[in-house]
């Protein structure tokens, strides 16, 4: 038996949704989740690489957002605000997941066996092709295979757009460590995507 259907059209825009949330309208939280859950989940799975843990972060993000709604000042959109909460929750989860493994303990030099073996020249601009949904899916799959220490830095720097300094502060790393990890992540991704790029 299907559950209740929540119509997003209850709130015609984000301002109306926010007003509904502040009035504690019964359907407002469901509308918030329905509208932004894909965005929050995508960020969580990128950072954590685990579907179950990403679902946990999804729940924590919306619980925290509803608890802290009174502190939301509206300087950014609701989506950006939720994205930041999800990122912080995921980073905190990563620190708790492996308390005995310090992210700073990862070697910050590139080892010979880590160098890509199948680097080839691509015949088209990858940035332009990034709009292609198939390529995005391939990139997400490749990203999920990166070691956590590299994946997190890549997501924060190249997907979320944080500066090197901001990424270093978020992860408790030095800026040089962030640069090395980002370089390693890009090399790994380039190698992982080489076969796809050659075919297309």
Automatic annotation (TrEMBL):
Keywords: DNA-binding, Sigma factor, Transcription, Transcription regulation. Signal peptide: none annotated. It comes from the Bacteria. Residues 137-189 form the RNA polymerase sigma factor 70 region 4 type domain. GO terms for molecular function: DNA binding; sigma factor activity. One of its GO terms (biological process) is DNA-templated transcription initiation. Residues 32-98 form the RNA polymerase sigma-70 region domain. The keyword Transcription applies. Belongs to the sigma-70 factor family. ECF subfamily. This is RNA polymerase, sigma-24 subunit, ECF subfamily. It comes from Roseiflexus castenholzii (strain DSM 13941 / HLO8).
